[in-house]
Fold this sequence. Notes:
Helix content is 46%, strand content 15%. By secondary structure, the protein is an alpha/beta fold. The chain folds into two domains: 5-181, 3-Layer(aba) Sandwich (Rossmann fold), CATH 3.40.50.720; 191-283, N-(1-d-carboxylethyl)-l-norvaline Dehydrogenase, domain 2 (Orthogonal Bundle). The strands form two sheets. It has an eight-stranded mixed sheet with strand order 3-2-1-4-5-6-7-8, sandwiched between helices. Helix 1 packs across helix 2, helix 1 packs across helix 3 (61-69) and helix 11 crosses helix 12 (260-267). The site of 3-hydroxybutanoyl-coenzyme A has 20 residues, from helix 2, helix 8 and helix 10. 3-hydroxybutanoyl-coenzyme A binds at residues 49, 52-53, 56, 58, 119, 142-144, 146-148, 189-190, 193, 225-226, 231, 235, 239.
Amino acid sequence: MEINKVGIVGAGQMGNGIAHVFALAGYDVVLNDIAQESLERAMALIDRNMDRQVTRKKITPEDKAKALTRIRTTLELADVGPNDLVIEAATEDEEVKNRIFAGLQPHLLEHTILTSNTSSISITRLASRTDRPERFMGFHFMNPVPVMQLVELIRGIATDEETYETCKAVVLRLGKTPSTAEDFPAFIVNRILMPMINEAVYALYEGVGSVESIDTSMRLGANHPMGPLELADFIGLDTCLAIMNVLHDGLADTKYRPCPLLTKYVEAGWLGRKTKRGFYDYRGERPVPTR
Ligand code: 3HC
């Protein structure tokens, strides 16, 4: 099946990046959010991130101009439904996602493939509440979307082969690489990445090292582009905690228990870059460790 028109629900951190890469790949994009302000912020970010790519000669100014004309914003789910592919990229909250899928339902076309960018919620469970579990998949992008090469494709128990093959072809047209994950808690990337981040928080909590020494160790000792605590701030500490809870609840193994210090930061509302404070304080000119 050929995909030309794509609807995206949620214009936040992930949604704006997803709109960015689809528009550059030549798809017509409808980007939806509940607040006009979020849509405006998303369009400004897309503009700025495309400028970075123009400056680095990854795309031409004409590519950018054409891509921007392909993105239409809307506050109505009714505009998102009638597309070939719909990607839900709203808050990582199952109730919110279920409400969105229910709201989209009357507006979907017969052939619309419904997907979620969830980082950890069961695809099979989300799919079972829609009218099309066979045309439902996990379509999981990494942050920052325009830069990261991988898209995880997660098959629910009922996902049919045509849906999977269609989504795989879309990932390739985006110029990215698909990896296939089965539908178990947190799939592949987060199943491995989040326990590492959680362990870094334990190392901090137990006084094994400071924020700076933990991040420097992993950057220079394991060649990671960012240290684990810097990466946790980048992803959002609330998201990291939510994923650890999904692993802990879903696999019932104490090795996934979230570090109490991670919980404490989230309780304080220190969620990382988005709130300007997490393991680092971003309010000044350069990030300063908070411990
Ligand atoms: N849009 C477009 N381009 C961007 C961008 C954005 N939002 N952010 C960065 N870039 C580009 C820059 O322009 C630059 O381009 P170049 O390679 O052509 O020079 C390149 O990316 C590198 O950027 P910078 O030079 O500014 O900075 P760094 O070299 O420090 O790289 C980084 C930044 C790519 C974010 C790098 O630090 C990195 O790879 N970090 C790890 C990210 C990661 O692990 N992400 C996965 C998180 S897990 C996840 O998303 C799953 C979810 O479910 C939680």
